[in-house]
């Protein structure tokens, strides 16, 4: 990223701000308690048995600033907190710590569009667009574009229940992106298409960013991340490890996973610690009148 691009990014208005956000929840565990309870408590448990619960830290305290015009990729192993972060940004769940600020209502692919498997693809286009607040005239004007982006062609007239998972994901992306959302969240859906769909979806995401929007993309495909984003965030076990340009972040992430694949756990966790120690986190500062200023990570 050039110095001019970096300056433009830092001075742009924020679309999404994660302010020292964290997420934890309790789940039932079948693991036996290691602590031996008092005698009286053991007797009470026989009559009022309670399941053993454990606290899962899905996201540890982290701060992020996503500015207008940015396309941010989110990578990490399974269970790293990627989908949890997307749910927090979309408003599906409330954080147990900190706060999420958004300049408008985020559109999460496949969530905001209330699609019905029994209906045809074209009927679902109308239904999904109406759910996002588009008028019938706006839907008619954008229908051909939605079909083109999805790549479904004549299959658009078939029931959605006959679609493959990839076809359904492509249609959801096309519907979600047609409304020109200021904040678009995409979770894994762009991995399910051919080269033509990849080109169409990238072109659509570029158009969204040019209209002062931002895109957050979760994917296990590093090629997709490098092709479609200009910034990458690496999460691991709920921690923010690295935030920077796609080439640098994906390179470190691949080194980390390669160490793990070869059984070099000490080397992997040493690399993780070194990268995390050099992280410059976003800083949210309260100002007079309740306003906030947002300083992006370097």
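^ Assign residues to that structure.
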């Amino acid at each position: 990223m050039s110095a001019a691009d970096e300056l433009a990014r830092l001075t742009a208005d924020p679309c999404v701000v994660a302010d020292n956000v964290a997420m934890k929840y309790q789940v039932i565990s079948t693991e036996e308690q290691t602590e031996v309870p008092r005698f009286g408590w053991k007797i009470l448990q026989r009559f009022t048995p309670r399941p053993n619960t454990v606290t899962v830290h899905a996201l540890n305290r982290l701060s992020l600033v996503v500015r207008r015009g940015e396309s941010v990729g989110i990578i990490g192993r399974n269970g790293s907190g990627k989908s949890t972060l997307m749910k927090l940004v979309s408003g599906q769940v409330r954080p147990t710590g900190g706060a999420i600020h958004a300049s408008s209502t985020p559109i999460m692919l496949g969530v905001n569009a209330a699609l019905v498997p029994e209906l045809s693809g074209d009927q679902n286009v109308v239904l999904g667009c109406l759910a996002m607040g588009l008028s019938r005239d706006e839907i008619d004007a954008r229908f051909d574009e939605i079909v083109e982006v999805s790549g479904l062609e004549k299959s658009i007239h078939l029931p959605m229940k006959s679609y493959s998972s990839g076809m359904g994901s492509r249609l959801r992306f096309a519907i979600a992106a047609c409304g020109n959302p200021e904040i678009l969240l995409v979770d894994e859906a762009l991995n399910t298409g051919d080269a033509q769909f990849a080109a169409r979806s990238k072109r659509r995401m570029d158009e969204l960013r040019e209209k002062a929007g931002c895109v957050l993309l979760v994917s296990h495909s590093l090629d997709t991340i490098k092709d479609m984003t200009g910034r990458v965030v690496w999460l691991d076990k709920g921690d923010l490890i690295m935030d920077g340009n796609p080439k640098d972040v994906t390179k470190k992430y691949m080194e980390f996973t390669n160490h793990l694949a070869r059984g070099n756990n000490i080397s992997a966790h040493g690399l993780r610690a070194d990268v995390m120690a050099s992280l410059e986190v976003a800083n949210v500062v309260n100002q007079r009148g309740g306003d906030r200023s947002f300083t992006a990570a370097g």
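The radius of gyration is 22 Å.
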